[in-house]
Amino acid sequence: MKTCPFDFQRFIDGWVREIAMSRCHLSEDFDPQILPSDPRFGDFQCNGIFAHAKRSGMVPRQLGERVLEALQSSDAAHLCDLSLAGAGFINFKIAVPAIENWLATYTSEEDFSDATGDLSGKTIVVDYSCPNTAKQMHVGHLRSMVIGDAIARLLDFFGADVIRDNHLGDWGTQFGILLMQLREEKISWENLSPDETLECLETVYRRGTQATQASDDAMERARAELVALQNGDPERIATWKWINAVSYASFQEIYDLAGVKFDHVLGESFYRNRVNRVYDELSQCGIAEADEGALVVFHRDHPRFDQQPFIVRKRDGASNYATTDLATVLYRREEWHCNEIIYVTDGRQRDHFQQLFLTVERWFAAKGYTLPVLKHVWFGTVCGEDGKAIKTRSGEPIRLKTLFAEAIHRAEEIVVSKDSNLAAEERVHISRAVGIGAIKYGDLLQNRTSDYMFSWDKMLSLEGNTAPYLQYAVARLHAIFRRANVDPHALGKSHKIHLQEPQEIALARKLLFYPCVLRQALADLRPHFICTYIYELAGVFSTFYNSTKVLDADQQTLFSRLSLCARTRAILRSGLNLLGINALERM
Ligand code: ARG
After folding, report:
1. Domain containing 462: what range?
2. Is 158 in the pocket of ligand 1 (CB under 6 A)?
């Protein structure tokens, strides 16, 4: 057992609850609401007294005094300077010896992760990236991949069994059009790379769409192709498989560059033979009904979905996006025994997921199936300088391949301007990490539900809240260790940290807020809390390093301060790692 709590916010919460109940006889519904406080007054603040007093007809300030007194007369391990403010708010400061103890206990990324078992025993599916095949990935696919990956990493950190599933859009009407048009055009596919093949397929698709819009006859032929495909015609299946394989080869290049991995790539097509059970069960349970030849689900007590039904089988008898998603929930529950599913998509799909979740709830309740927790983690749009969704000059969404290549190219210019003596291999490695890191961080830094403006200058700047700035901060820490000729890992628990100077204490205090920040990011599934924190931490570190002697301090102080540098390094790296960004030893 560790004697020092990892997360002081949690520790104080538990302690205040206990004392308030046992000594002040507050009822069980008392929620202390412990939050980080204004640093002038303390580290944490108890905000829940006001609401509790109001609810129970007590005077807030008086209740605050009672609770404070009880807290002060019990053993306030780890805490000091308890004080009352305003209408019953209690401030707490973490005592310096407790901070030193914390720094001695939690020294590495493994220690942090070991201390947070909140999700152990839980199986959580993260459904992210999920582009549609027969097209290249473009900027519209950036956020699901980047945010989904960060969320999967965070859940994993908290001990969950995470299943990363790339639910590709590989089964839909687009294939009818593609197959029709491919039949009509004689194209030589030899010697084309996956990207070139996809580019070619994109134009074939465009011509096919024009043809079906121009003539009913073409439309009929496309429909017939789709029916043939869905009935398993070997020739159509072979072409369809080829398109998907080429598509995935192109996606894989992006995933490799971005450092994103999946445990499963089960596209919509995987569920095509599992949709009959969905129709049967939803119909038998009286949840789905026939409506003009289609099978639909109305949610009668919903303000909109009472009129706007969830279509689970189209008029022509074909399945759709909703059907495969319904079959997918069942599969994930029955085969993977998942406790939770998190879907990471664009905010425009909010209605789809609300209808999906409502339908699954009714269906699973009727059948007595265990319902996993279903969450839609949605995000806003990436905008160009004009405030509209970012596009190329010709009006197409920018391809991710182009975006990443430009980021790496721009990063390389910056890297070379800083140090022109880098060996070629190292230059390539650093430029990649900086370029890709800048795009990912520029995205994660935003509150995911907001739209944001894409700006090369902002995200690649070495100053401000950017990946390059943070990567530079880590590299600078490594440089300190190189100059001291000390291995940061060797400074684990062996060297006692003794906090003396105010800037040193300020840095140490900042470090112990890391667990609270992680928990906040987890609670809301919003990685930007981590970005804000590590950026602030890098700033506090800078202040410490610029104002406090480290390398030329006396021997004992040197090792104490180097250990503090090692903790800062561990937390910055851990934070960047959770965001899927490469920390660099040299830059
Ligand atoms: N393929 C879809 C799209 O491009 C996203 C799929 C998200 N996942 C899901 N299970 N519906 O919009």
Report:
1. 400-578
2. no
In contact, 19 and 10? CB cutoff 8 Å: no
Question: Would you say the C-alpha torsion 130, 136, 142, 143 has a positive or negative sign?
Answer: negative
The distance of Cα 536 from the centroid of its chain, to the nearest Å, equals 20
| One domain for residues 212 and 298 | yes
Instruction: Tell me the pLDDT tens digit for each residue of 457-492.
Output: 999 999 999 999 999 999 999 999 999 999 998 887
Q: Cα(260)–Cα(166) distance, rounded to whole angstroms?
A: 11
Q: How far is the centre of ligand 1, averaged over its atoms, from the C-alpha of 147 (Å)?
A: 14
Residue predicted with more confidence, 391 or 279: 279
Chain mean pLDDT for the chain = 95
- Residue 182's nearest CA partner among 211, 213, 215, 205 is 205
Q: Which of 345, 374, 378, 381 to mutate to test the pocket of ligand 1 (most atoms within 8 A of CB)?
A: 345
User: Which pair of tokens denotes residue 421?
Assistant: 């003596």
Whether residue 365 sits in one domain with residue 219: yes
pLDDT in tens, 198-235: 999 999 999 999 999 999 999 999 999 998 998 999 99
Mode of pairing for the β-strands spanning 161-165 and 123-127: parallel
- Determine which residue's CA is closest to atom 4 belonging to ligand 1: 131
What CATH number does the domain containing 522 carry?
1.10.730.10
